[in-house]
């Protein structure tokens, strides 16, 4: 297995999405002007700047912003899923819960609202947003309690529903998501800087869009929600909430809001592809928006790899893709979508010499485990049999983590500080 090359391609992708790097590229202070991407603010027109950073990349994003703005910031609130390695005196830190919201998530939301209420008409609020923010900052609507929302979250994660439907439900049962947090920012100006972990980079879906005005969904979209098993399990009151139309208040409609995506999966995969080419591989950037059931996609990419291997007409080949798959959890095992894909891929490519792969989350976490994903190759199936590990049984039980742990093929990175969807790398060699 060519772990060295697989790791390097993955590392290049992660480095391209480094939160601090992305902030330094996006915010410039020159003379009397503050440049945030294409937006220009006259410093003399801005009284105070409030920064609220939330998501898995919240700490490095906030640190980089503060380094640029320095004394211009009035208050910096950082909502994260972990304790910072070093605390800055000016920062207010809230360590919250992920992937399931709890009382810490509610506390974080209240802290954000408290900060926003201080902002006035001549102030600027900068939101630094990254994936994971939906769980880290949560406030349920009055119709449901936090424990009920927590239970819904758990069911959503295990439902196998497409992420766009999951995010829709999250917004509807929240008092702050889907642009609802903006009412607390009024009348200040707002600028959103987003590191996207969402397929096709829609800002409104990152962290369930608490600072993005929610647009009404089509009838087809709503009908798909209604036809899901998840919807049928809801109470009648909750069903009404999910399907009810919402309208933005005048207070929010009149806000001066600018939104910029500063990093996403595509940007990272392009850099990864360049590196693979420099290493002598013919490359195929298959897609930056892979969606679907992880097990089925593992089978698909396994067949694709075999096809290229059989043809062997273009030499050493590297297939790169990104996106976010789903797992329909039926078993009681431990795993994640990347490890599940790797397991299914391993079954498909058994004994096909020269094929190896890495499937991993960019944030260093797969399915709530300490693993980012897993390595696999043409030897994985044989080695599993030698150890008495039945791939079929592990797939049925959604127990990919323990399968790859026994084979010592887990991808362990720790928290990368990055969150731009999942990354798939397949190497086809002679």
The level 1 CATH classification of the largest domain is: Alpha Beta
Report the CATH superfamily of the largest domain. Answer: Glycerate kinase, MOFRL-like N-terminal domain
Total helical segments: 18
CATH architecture title of the largest domain = 3-Layer(aba) Sandwich
Helix content estimate? 25-40%
| Termini separation | 12 Å
Characterization of this structure:
- With 430 residues, the chain is of the alpha/beta class.
- It folds into two domains: 18-139 and 174-213 and 248-263, Rossmann fold; 266-428, glycerate kinase, domain 1 (3-Layer(aba) Sandwich), CATH 3.40.1480.
- It is 39% helix and 21% strand.
- It has 18 helices and 15 strands.
- It has helices at 3-16, 19-26, 58-69, 103-116, 133-136, 146-158, 163-172, 182-185, 219-226, 229-232, 236-243, 250-253, 265-278, 294-311, 337-348, 380-386, 391-396, 400-406, and strands at residues 27-30, 33-36, 39-42, 49-54, 73-80, 91-95, 124-130, 189-195, 257-263, 282-290, 317-323, 355-361, 373-377, 410-411, 422-428.
- The strands form three sheets. It has a six-stranded parallel sheet with strand order 6-5-4-7-8-9, with helices on both faces.
- Strand 4 (49-54), helix 3 and strand 5 form a beta-alpha-beta unit.
- The radius of gyration is 22 Å and the shape is globular.
């Amino acid at each position: 297995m060519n772990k060295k090359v697989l790791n390097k391609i993955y590392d290049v992708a992660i480095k391209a999405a480094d939160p601090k790097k992305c902030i330094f590229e996006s915010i410039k202070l020159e003379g009397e002007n503050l440049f945030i991407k294409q937006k220009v603010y006259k410093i003399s027109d801005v009284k105070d700047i409030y920064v609220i950073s939330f998501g898995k990349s919240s700490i490095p994003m906030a640190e980089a912003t503060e380094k640029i703005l320095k004394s211009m910031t009035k208050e910096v609130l950082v909502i994260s899923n972990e304790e910072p390695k070093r605390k800055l005196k000016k920062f207010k830190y809230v360590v919250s819960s992920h992937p399931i919201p709890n009382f810490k998530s509610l506390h974080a939301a209240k802290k954000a609202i408290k900060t926003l209420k201080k902002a006035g008409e001549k102030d600027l609020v900068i939101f630094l947003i990254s994936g994971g923010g939906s769980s880290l900052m949560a406030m349920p609507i009055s119709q449901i309690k936090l424990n009920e929302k927590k239970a819904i979250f758990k069911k959503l994660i295990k439902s196998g529903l497409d992420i766009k439907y999951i995010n829709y439900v999250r917004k509807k049962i929240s008092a702050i998501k889907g642009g609802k947090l903006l009412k607390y920012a009024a009348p200040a100006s707002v600028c959103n800087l987003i590191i996207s972990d969402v397929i096709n980079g829609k800002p409104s879906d990152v962290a369930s869009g608490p600072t993005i005005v929610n647009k009404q969904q089509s009838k087809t979209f709503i009908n798909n929600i209604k036809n899901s098993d998840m919807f049928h399990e809801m109470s009648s009151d909750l069903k009404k909430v999910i399907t009810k139309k919402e309208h933005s208040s005048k207070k929010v409609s009149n806000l001066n809001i600018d939104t910029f995506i500063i990093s996403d999966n595509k940007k990272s995969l392009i850099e990864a592809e360049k590196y693979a080419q420099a290493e002598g591989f013919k490359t195929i950037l298959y897609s930056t928006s892979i969606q679907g059931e992880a097990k089925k996609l593992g089978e698909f990419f396994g067949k694709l790899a075999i096809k290229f291997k059989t043809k062997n007409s273009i030499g050493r080949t590297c297939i790169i893709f990104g996106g976010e798959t789903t797992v329909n959890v039926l078993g009681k095992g431990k795993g994640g979508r990347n490890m599940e894909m790797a397991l299914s891929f391993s079954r498909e490519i058994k004994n096909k010499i020269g094929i190896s792969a890495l499937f991993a989350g960019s944030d260093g976490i797969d399915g709530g485990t300490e693993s980012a994903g897993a390595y696999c190759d043409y030897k994985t199936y044989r080695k599993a049999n030698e150890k008495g590990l039945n791939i079929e049984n592990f797939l049925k039980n959604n127990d990919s983590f323990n399968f790859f742990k026994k084979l010592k093929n887990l991808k362990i990175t720790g928290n990368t500080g990055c969150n731009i969807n999942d990354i798939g790398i397949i190497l086809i060699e002679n």
